[in-house]
Amino acid sequence: MLHPIRKNDNLYQKVILAIKDYIREGKLKPGDKLPTERELVELLHVSRTTIREALRVMEILGILEISVGRGTFVTDLSLESIANSISNMLYFEKENIDYLYEVREMIEVKNAGLAAERANEEDIQRIENAAEKLKGALNKKGHGIIEEKYLHVAIAKATHNPILFSILNLIIDPYLEVFLHPSYDFKVANREREAINEHLIIIDAIKKHDPNAAMEAMKIHINLSKESAKMTLS
């Protein structure tokens, strides 16, 4: 439960930490309503001004949602929720595709370089297996969307950086939904064979532990992918 806060110059920060710990421990879940300001004052032994300041900061950080007349609620900060928000942005505002690809380039080019530096035999085997599944899907006249996802995930995993891996998982599904949009035509984009060749160049650089070549190959792949997406969705 929430405990009284010791008095010092950073009271509102301590209130934030107390509430965040409460959420982290699972005692408040996404969608749950926080105690009222009056109840928080009594629980934490701080002023209402301090409580309001802490709640305002947590709202700005996206941890809480304050609804006038209803109360204060814990927001859903799960990867699935954030990914859904990105997907909705892309669905309703196609110009956001440029922004998504900017993020992809920032993350995935770095992923390719780090994978080239850090990948061990198990990582390379995982990446090659994913590439084979992608080629198999394309040989069966499929679009290979899911198989491409697992290839990019395998490259991210080879960075051995759990934060980069989580960020890639956050953006990969909204990105792939671009290619599942009804207006996307794989034949018009002519991406089936091009895409696999681009991936093979990336993989070859990773296997050779050449980070510069891997990063350059990934950058080329992302830029070509962006152009085809914009062409078919315009």
Helix content: over 70%
Q: Using only CA atoms, what is the Rg?
A: 23 Å
Total count of domains: 2
CATH topology of the largest domain: Four Helix Bundle (Hemerythrin (Met), subunit A)
Count of distinct strands: 2
CATH architecture of the largest domain: Up-down Bundle
Query: How many helical stretches?
Result: 11
Order of helices and strands: HHHEEHHHHHHHH
Overall geometry: elongated
Helix-and-strand structural type: mainly alpha
CATH class categorisation of the largest domain: Mainly Alpha
> What is the arithmetic mean of pLDDT?
83
Strand order of the largest sheet: 1-2
Q: How big a fraction of the residues is strand?
A: under 5%
Q: Major β-sheet, in short?
A: 2 strands, antiparallel
- N→C terminal distance: 53 Å
Write a structural description.
- This protein has 234 residues and is mainly alpha-helical.
- It folds into 2 domains: 64 residues, Arc Repressor Mutant, subunit A, CATH 1.10.10.10; 154 residues, Up-down Bundle (Four Helix Bundle (Hemerythrin (Met), subunit A)).
- It is built from 11 helices and 2 strands, in the order αααββαααααααα.
- It has a two-stranded antiparallel sheet.
- Helix 4 runs parallel beside helix 8, helix 5 crosses helix 7 and helix 6 packs antiparallel against helix 10.
- The longest helix is centred in the middle third of the chain and has 23 residues.
